Amino acid sequence: MLKLPALLIILLTPLSLIGQYTIRGQVQLDSSWDNTVYLSLIPDLEDMYRCSESLIIAKSGIESDGTFELHGSVFPEQPYLVRIHVSKHGDPPATLIIGSRDENHCFLALNKNAQLNLKPAKTGLFDHFSVQQDAQNKALFHIDSLQHYFADIDTAFSSIDYKRMVQEEQTQTLLAYADTCRFVLPALYAVYLADWGANRQEIRLARERLAGRFPAHPYLQDIYGRIEDGRSPLSLWVGVVILAILIGGLLLMIRKRPPPGLRDLSVQERKILAYLYEGRSNKEIAGQLHIEPSTVKSHVYNIYQKLSISSRKEVARFGRWIGE
Predict the structure, then answer these.
(1) Whose CA is closest to 171, among 179, 159, 160, 182?
(2) In this predicted structure, what is the pLDDT of residue 2?
(3) Strand 21-26 relative to strand 115-118, pairing
(4) What integer pLDDT is reported at residue 136 of this predicted model?
(5) Radius of gyration of the chain from Cα atoms?
(6) What is the pTM of this model?
(7) 26 three-state secondary structure
(8) DSSP state letter for 197
(9) Residue 296: what pLDDT?
(10) What is the number of helices (H) and of strands (E) in the chain?
C-alpha cells in the first residue's frame, strides 16, 4: 500500500482552520536525549509503529524543567491517533524505541480543538494515555492497562496451552470493551490489540460492528466498502463473475503466495524473523532493534505460534519470502 506523508493526508482530508489543538506535558530527560518533542499523525492503525519524518506535523523545544507544548491550527475534522516522541542524541528525529526502559513515545487521541494535559510519568519517559480531563484518552489508558494486565499473566505461564488461553481471554475482553465504548478511536485501538493474527475473521466482524455504530472514519474506510458491497445483489453477482474469470490465474499463483502464517506477522515480527534466518541470537537482535532480550523472546514465541514451528532450524523454510 502506498503511504502518504502526514501533511498530504491532512491536505486531502476535510479540515478545520479555526480549531486550535494543544498538548502540554513534562518529560524528564538526561543528557543522552535531544531537547525536542515531536508530534506525528497516524494515518492508519497499521502505521502506529511506523516512524518517518513525513508523519511529523508539529514539534516543540523542551524547557529546562522538562515542560513542552505542542500546538497547531490545521487538523482533520475527525479525531485521529497521534504519537509524541523524543529522540536520542545522534539518532534521526523519526526514531522509535519499542519495549525497553528507554521507550520514547506514547499515543494519544486528538481532536481539532483538544486541550490535553499529560500527567508526569511515574516510570520511563511517558505514561501511555495519561491525560487529565479527557474521556477519549482515559478510555485509551484503560485499554492499555488491560493489555499490560494480560501481558503480566502471560509471562507467568510457560505452558503454550495456558498462554493461548490467556490470549483468547484477552481478545474477548478487548472486543467486549470495543463493542460498548462510546468513542471510535479507543474502540478501534481495542480491536487492534485484540488481533493476534489467527483470528482475522473475528477482528473483521468486530470492525464491521464499529462501522455500523460510528459515523464514517478513514480508519474504517475499507470496512464501509465491504458492507456496501454486501448490501448490493448486483455487486455480489459482479463479484462472482469476476471471481470465476480470475480463478484460473489465482490457481497458478497459489504456489507462489507466502504461507498464511507469514502474512499474519507484524512489522516488528518480520524484522525479527529475518534476524533469526541470519542466525542471530536474541541478545544480538535486541541490540539491533534497541529492545530488551525478554521482548525479543516474546516476539519469537509469537512467531513460532503463527508459523506453526518449534525451532530456529525451521525458519529456513520461509527463506524465500524473507525480505519481500
Answers:
(1) 179
(2) 41
(3) parallel
(4) 92
(5) 21
(6) 0.65
(7) strand
(8) S
(9) 86
(10) 11, 10
Contact present, 220 and 188 (Cβ < 8 Å): yes
Structure confidence at residue 181 (pLDDT): 94
In DSSP terms, which residues pair with 75 in a beta bridge? 16
Q: Is 88 in contact with 30 (CB distance < 8 Å)?
A: no
How far is Cα 129 from Cα 144, in angstroms, rounded to an integer? 8
Strand, coil or helix: what is 19? coil
CA 4 to chain CA centroid, Å, is: 17
What's the grid cell of residue 141?
Answer: 489508558
Hey, which residues does 41 pair with through a beta bridge? 82
39 touches 56 (CB < 8 A): yes
Q: Please give the Cα distance from 179 to 194 (Å, whole number).
A: 12
Handedness of CA 292, 164, 50, 69 (dihedral sign): negative
Helices (H), the chain: 6-11, 135-155, 160-180, 184-194, 200-213, 221-230, 233-253, 260-263, 267-277, 282-289, 293-307
* Identity at 189, one-letter amino acid code: Y
- The packing angle between helices 160-180 and 135-155, to 10°, is 170
Predicted confidence at residue 323, as pLDDT, reads 60
Ordered mean pLDDT values, 10 residues apiece, the chain (324 residues): 49 54 92 94 87 90 94 89 93 85 89 90 80 87 88 80 85 94 94 84 91 89 59 50 59 60 81 86 87 86 86 81 66
- Tell me which residue of 79, 4, 12 sits closest to 47, measured CA to CA: 4
